[in-house]
Amino acid sequence: MTAVVEATDLEKTYGETVALSGASLSVTAGEVFGLIGPNGAGKTTLVRALTGTTEPDSGTARVLGEAPAAIDRGRLGVLPQDFSPPDRLSARELLAYYAGLYDDPRDPDAVLADVGLADARDTWYEDLSGGQQRRVCVGSTLVNDPDVLFLDEPTTGIDPAGRRTVWRLIEDLAAGGTTVLLTTHDMAEAERLADRVGLLADGSLVACDTPAALVRKHGGSSRLTIETTAESEAFEDLEYPVERPGRGRHGTPDGALVVRDIAPAEIGAVVDYLEDRNLEYTGLSWAEPDLEDVYLELADRTELERTSPDTSERDDLASASETA
Fold it and tell me: What are the Basic and acidic residues biased-composition ranges (predicted)?
């Protein structure tokens, strides 16, 4: 299938900083492509190179078969990460202004309804909440009914209900044939919306596939989280691998233990183990691996390889990650 958006070996440096280092990707018509990666990985630079606002040092970028700077801007919708329209215009006036830049725009009221802001049409931009402002910004990229849509962290600051409105809108656009490339730090967003996900690290794509395929390959095993104050030694006789990961990953509470590689039908055996040894616990939760596991695995591996000074140590770390 012909690529609608294509980057080949893009390189870009800013002084001593390497923003892109051989970044390559290909997005087909009607596809939603999710770009994830740590801060500073080069996501925004890659989007700028693909939209013609940054000139790469080397490599090629093509959108709709042309160089990004040569594209009819009416065929593109671009939402930068930082976008600050005039404060003293209403939501409708802002969209009417952007609609006026195109020959055959959509009705601003219809766009406001799409992003869930029909009731706020007459509110000044500065008086909208942060999440509402971001939805107006999303709307500004849709007034020209673009063929290709670039969204750099589109739902940042939007509340859960508003985020789902934007998600449904993106799904509807893709179903209608719009090609979408979005960057996000929200793994649930990427997993729900993206047909394929690419992880950008140190300026290049280190993995790219469907969310399900990435989870199968890099997500690891299922986990049963036990909220307990019992010491790890109390679980030495349990037949499943046990770890105490600490707070943060998947919102694991302080002191909780994680039992790895366990099927739902086997949870009863763990409960029996707890009760037979009078080990107190306040909660149990089971989960399959997801895209967050993939992100943490690949991002951690890339960070270890980048910061480890010894080549043999990097190889050992990579081997351990592959077999974990």
Answer: 300-317
Model confidence pLDDT, tens digit, residues 120-174: 999 999 999 999 999 999 999 999 999 999 999 999 999 999 999 999 999 999 9
What is the CATH topology of the domain spanning 221-287? Alpha-Beta Plaits (3.30.70)
CA-based Rg of the chain, rounded to a whole angstrom?
23
pTM of the model: 0.83
Any idea what the Cα angle at residue 312 is, between residues 306 and 316, rounded to 5°? Answer: 80
Q: For residue 219, count other CB atoms closer than 10 A to its CB.
A: 20
Distance from C-alpha of 141 to C-alpha of 130, rounded to nearest angstrom: 17
> Under CATH, which number does the domain 3-209 receive?
3.40.50.300
Distance CA 267, CA 69 (A): 57
> How many CB atoms are located within 10 Å of the residue 87 CB?
12
